[in-house]
Amino acid sequence: MMKYKLILFLCLILNLSCAQTQTPSSKPITSVTTDELKNVVLLDVRTPEEYQQGHLENSLNVNWYDSDFVQQVEGIDKDDTIYVYCKLGGRSAKAQEKLKSLGYKNVVNLEGGYDAWSSKKQ
């Protein structure tokens, strides 16, 4: 009986240690650092008009509403970590789910969107 408890305990520890290394599925955009953004693919899913009014540096603009959204993101490596944002967080959450369904492994929705980011900067 003690042997089974020990095995169960070791499995639990192993599981918890693996879970801590996974990329979170979402995080507040206001907690993201500029250095952190240098190591990810930054995907802005707003319209081109919204993007032109202001965007995060080095972001790739792919309009969520475009009928060829899937084709436009195909050039992104599925193993890359992708941070996706929009104006407030609704479209980016939908884009995140779509990307995950397409096999992208590390997709993080930046909660609060560009509005929260630009408010933080002021």
UniProtKB/TrEMBL annotation:
Which positions carry the signal peptide feature in this UniProt record?
Answer: 1-21
List where the protein spans the membrane.
Answer: none
Name of the protein in question: Rhodanese-like domain-containing protein
InterPro entries reported for this sequence: Rhodanese-like_dom (IPR001763), Rhodanese-like_dom_sf (IPR036873), Thiosulfate_ST/Rhodanese-like (IPR052367)
Which PANTHER family does UniProt cross-reference here?
RHODANESE-LIKE DOMAIN-CONTAINING PROTEIN 15, CHLOROPLASTIC
Tell me yes or no: is Signal among this UniProt entry's keywords.
yes
Q: Which UniProt keywords apply?
A: Signal
Originating species:
Maribacter litopenaei
Specify the superkingdom: Bacteria
Looking up Gene3D superfamilies in the UniProt record yields: Rhodanese-like domain
Identify the residues that the record assigns to the Rhodanese domain, covering every copy: 36-122
